[in-house]
Write a structure and sequence with these properties.
81 residues, 64% helix, 0% strand, rod-shaped
Amino acid sequence: MPRTTDKRSAARRTTRVQRAHTNKIEGAAVRRRPISRRGSVKGTRNIFQRYPVAFALLLLLVVGSTVYTLYAKQIIFAPTP
């Protein structure tokens, strides 16, 4: 005849297995992404995505001012003599 301690440990083991298969484990560790040390690079990369209209206007302003300066100094679009 088996000992009662063996019966108890077997009963505990079976109840633990049944609980593990029926209930969701509460307080389980949630895996999170490790903190990146390159935070500033991430911020500068997203600035183009945050303000696309501002960068388009800035590009138009730079190109327009360059063309106007070249036109005013008659480097391009110069009248033929």
